[in-house]
Amino acid sequence: MMEVDGTYYVGLSARTNREGFEQFKAIAAQFNHPALAVPVHDFLHLKTGTTYLGDSKLLVTGEFVNHPAFANFTQLVVPAEEAYAVNCINTGNGVIMPTGFPVVKQLLEDHGFPVFEAAMSEFEKIDGGLTCLSLRFTAH
């Protein structure tokens, strides 16, 4: 699931089916938050192929490039050979991304994001990404 300004984008995959999405959508609606289903075919989950960076900018790769659900975003397209680096985290002070992906690093820097690299090679071997290894809290 990816939250963007109060809207929840929920990947439909082997991990989250339509029934689970509909239950979540009903709960989110109680709090006036829309939820949109995004079918996921080629990735483990939604945020393996797309990450919201803020300021209407979205890292995308593979099946999510030019996806209709993301038509209102500026898409920063990541080539297939660097797809693992799509799973990154914008902390508000910069983007934490895996080490070793120079095209993605340059893409982020070209769009004004300070970049902080983290060694992820051992986690990459088991399909673990930065968002899988993080707990984030927002103060309201």
From TrEMBL:
One of its GO terms (molecular function) is hydrolase activity. It comes from the Bacteria. The active site is at 45 (proton donor), 132 (nucleophile). Keywords: Hydrolase. It comes from Limosilactobacillus fermentum (strain NBRC 3956 / LMG 18251) (Lactobacillus fermentum). Transmembrane segments: none annotated. The keyword Iron-sulfur does not apply. Belongs to the DDAH family. This is Dimethylargininase. InterPro entries: DDAH-like.
